[in-house]
Write a structure and sequence with these properties.
The structure is a single chain. The protein is mainly α. The protein folds into two domains: 309 residues, Growth Hormone, Chain: A, CATH 1.20.1250; 55 residues. It is built from 17 helices and no strands. Helix 1 packs antiparallel against helix 2. The two termini are 19 Å apart.
Length: 395
Amino acid sequence: MFRAGLVIFGVGSLMCGCAPNLASLIALRAVAAMGGALLQPNALSTITGVFVEPRARARAIGVWAAVFGASAAAGGLLVGALGWRWVFWVNLPIVAAAYGLSIRFMPETRSPGPRRLDGAGQVLVVAALAPSTYAIIEGPSAGWRSPGVIVPAAVGTVALAAFIAMERRQAQPLLEVRLFAGPRFAGAIGIAVLSFVILAGFLFLTTLYLQDARGDAPIMAGLLVLPATVAIVVVSPLTGRLVARRGPRLPLCAAGVALTAGPLVLVHAAATTPYCHLAAGYLLLGIGFGLVNPPITNTAVAAMPAARAGVASAVATSARQIGNVLGVAVIGSLVTAGRPAIGWYLLAGCGTAILITALAATRRPPDSSSTAASANPRPSSTSASGSRSTASRAV
């Protein structure tokens, strides 16, 4: 599945780079996203299958999380230096290298029992997210009481309620609602949504501010956010080691503080604001992202038995994508309404919510499922131990 995702993502990226117009680019971007949907959950479940010892797994997830930071400034740099098509074409050598490395180092992992697809659940998820996102984006321009906003918002709400009700009755649901009974798992997923609302909102607001208010070129905008990029790359692996030694509570609480302070520093940024002021906000946000991603990923996966790692990974990945969608939609609606400063305050509020959630979710003992998984770790891999050792050394 991981290699299939690489192929689909690579082909989609190639076609996106060749898109003749905006409509075709949007459609082809969906093709690439299908490949991306196969990559992240399978990558995470493989890490869990290879690194069965909790501390080693936490460190490995910290390295995995650092990859997010490595790409933060790449878009602006590529657009400014080579043009927007290279944002997609640059994926091709990366995909080719990843495919070759997966053949050499990546062991197979399987769930003991295959699960059936939940087609109705998939349809209801789309029916809940798509119209709700549309309503949030169109609200400021069309008016929150206009039928074009009220109707899609109502459709999204009804679809979400129907999805939750149906998933409770399904033998093999798309999303197992009972997973959220564990406070650590539920807290980790909630923090994942909030943190990626902040990430998406930060990139959205910062791109508009640097290019519109300050008049910076895309390549310069990419360079100016390097404090955040470098902080994520440096802090994420260190956080993985911290989680391995101390658990998730300390880094998650520190992340909440940093992700609250960073947006507040940037609230009143103007065209003439000194860059050192901006860099302080970017650095705080980068540190916060570096602190938050490894513990939420590790906590979500560790809260489930090894055989359910794929499900936990998929839920965590979906939570991030939902956060991305909501972040752009909500912050975009505020920008459209001419209130970008409120957007920064909203992001700071999400940071405070992360702190509160972290304090609440990590004050209790680990869930019984997590304790059982830690006491009796068992990989879901069907490969020989030699393959797993080889993969561990490679990572």
